[in-house]
Amino acid sequence: MKILVCISHVPDTTSKINFTDNDTQFDTNGVQFVINPNDEFGLTRAMWFKEKQGASVDVVNVGGPETEPTLRKALAIGADSAIRVNTQAKDGLQVAKELAAVVQNGGYDLVIAGRESIDYNGGMVPGMLAGITGANFVNTCISLEVDGTNATATREIDGGKETVATSLPLVIGGQKGLVEESDLRIPNMRGIMMARKKPLNVVEPAGASADTTTVSFEKPAPKGAVKLVDNVDALIDLLHNEAKAI
Questions:
Q1: Is residue 104 within a helix (H) or strand (E), and if so which, with residue range?
Q2: What is this structure's pTM?
Q3: Do 82 and 199 form a contact (C-beta atoms < 8 A)?
Q4: Residue 39: which of 57, 53, 59 has the closest Cα?
Q5: Dist. CA 73–CA 233, nearest whole Å
Q6: Omega before 169 cis (within 30°)?
Q7: How large is the average pLDDT for residues 223-227?
């Protein structure tokens, strides 16, 4: 079984976010980038298939040279090789089309993507990738088993969970629950040394164009001052006369 894990290069949630050029560009200065958490759950599950079923695991990212340290981390975790599509990710459809070209050229049986990335939270790429490649698709996936060409997946739905039976080729949008958090892997020294010898292939883009452009960014408004009250009458007065909540 050939597995492709899609890796997004995203800012760490502890990083301070700023914008430049009149709030039209994201300022990367001082920002620490990491593997998108939803993708990390998927990569760890792919490692299980590699170790238990002998699957081969490649990782892929659409982006510039700045994303290569993140791909190297994925290699250090255990992926066999990495692919970087040499173009900037501009919107979900463009990324899906570029990934689709990699999938079709590589003949992958299973594509594991994160449900969404934590930077833009679009949640569009896995579904569009499945549509373009004609693969089956399971989103919000929290469990996946593969037996030959058959797969059983569990996904979150409103009010519960749903287990579905499907077949390869398959694209999933994985998330927390696909593996336990305690099973997530931290690269060790041996993995880091081995990652230096593993192939990281840079491929030219298929030429997909972006249909959307970013006009501007805006930070959330700062939180207002907090008023502390020490009796019920004062609280009721504030809720009624100031907040207009009652």
A1: helix 92-106
A2: 0.88
A3: yes
A4: 59
A5: 57
A6: yes
A7: 83
